[in-house]
User: What shape does this take?
Amino acid sequence: MKRELVIVIDFGGQYNQLVARRVRECNVYCEIYSYKTDIEKIKELDPMGIILTGGPNSCYEADSPTYSRELFELGIPVLGLCYGAQLMMHLLGGRVERADVREYGKTEVMIDKLESKIFEEVVSPTICWMSHFDSISKAAPGFEVTAHTADCPVAAAENGAKRLYAIQYHPEVLHTAEGTKMLSNFVHGVCGCAGDWRMDSFVEESIRSIREKVGDGKVLCALSGGVDSSVAAVMLSKAIGSQLTCVFVDHGLLRKNEGDEVEEVFGPEGNYDLNFVRVNAQQRFYEKLAGVTEPEEKRKIIGEEFIRVFEEEAKKIGAVDFLVQGTIYPDIVESGLGGESAVIKSHHNVGGLPDYVDFKEIIEPLRDLFKDEVRKAGLEMGIPEYLVFRQPFPGPGLGVRIVGEVTAEKVKMVQDADAIYREEIQNAGLDKGIGQYFAALTNMRSVGVMGDERTYDYAVALRAVNTVDFMTAEAAEIPWSVLQKVTSRIVNEVAHVNRVLYDCTGKPPGTIEFE
Ligand code: XMP
Assistant: This one.
């Protein structure tokens, strides 16, 4: 059966991934393509609907992102959002101009055509999120105006017969009260999608196709214990059982007890049918890191040593047919392979294949999924919740949470402090509400007094941030009573720590990690 598909054509708007996620929340599979994608490719994809995103440009300027007018002649429903709406009007003969008043923020939208398919079950007026300088001053011929605001005569317009819809605001943003309903109206009511994209069927379908692809081949997976590689490994294990070998390198820079937890779940006593190899390489890493203080150098050493350890294990296993990578959809989009607002970072998972492992092909079972969908898939397959909802944890581990030289003693200090911090955040019921939080060990020693004795010990820094995309972040407000409890436990329970500091710095100018 052909999978129902809606595509998002990306004009560089900051919410491009959000649009696709909202569509998927309507149980319709959705992919993002750059506006540079050829129309022939779009025809080949044969989507049931097309959504044009917002973007930072003015559509009437010569070198602004645009698209072939033919897009509106394919008989496929099109929904333009913000820049996408303006471009649709501009290309089809309407007028877009710089507005006198910039509309920004929550805005009351008056619906003029309540029977529009887009506005089914939406009550007028409705609060929508606006963010635009330009505005549509005249709808294109064949279009009727279906909504307006105090400052904007055309907040929405449509050509119902051709199934073309333009809306000036952002339904994908949660500030648009009925936004999800409007998107659902588009994909279900207008495009006619049944909405059969569900995680249980995705998981089933993936397992079946992995089984088919791998046949009786051998598969190798580097397991880090993080969400993506864990979900990928479990999916593979369900598909091909012991044809899968997972190599877990314990570099001695994991969180407290993490190595044992990973082994408990994936090892011989665990829940899955696979070959599990744990490499206890802690000493090797500590030796390489001895005396090194420069953060980039530490990262390089950890990365290179990791490859060397993995390579040695891979050699023992011998040639394999497939190598698993835990690439997820944002990695693809952010590497510039999917959307447009794109090349934010060149992701280590995409494109660069390791040449030190003898394999024929890569398998990326999660490459179509957003992070929250990876988590859903994990839960669907019965992976324990604590694993599925793990915090993001950097590859170089605690190596980037210890300022200055990394030693086994310092690793122990930061592990213990971090475990206390995480426990208390959980006890206070704050864990799900904070983007990322952890303890780091500063390189500062200072004088303190404990039980009438002078101490000269280290300071731990607590970090907690809220963030949407990890590109920017702000320090989270943790209740004072929680910070006090964490502080008193850390200085009492962790040897050689006599001070606890809370890091209030946002990103920028800070980074999330503390190295
Ligand atoms: P920064 O510190 O750059 O972190 O603000 C942003 C996000 O990325 C994570 N991070 C890493 N993840 N390998 C990773 O897989 C790394 O080397 C790495 N460095 C930072 C960090 O935890 C945060 O979520």
About this structure: The longest strand covers residues 95-111. The two ends are 50 Å apart (CA to CA). Residues 295-317 form the longest helix (23 residues). The mean pLDDT is 93.
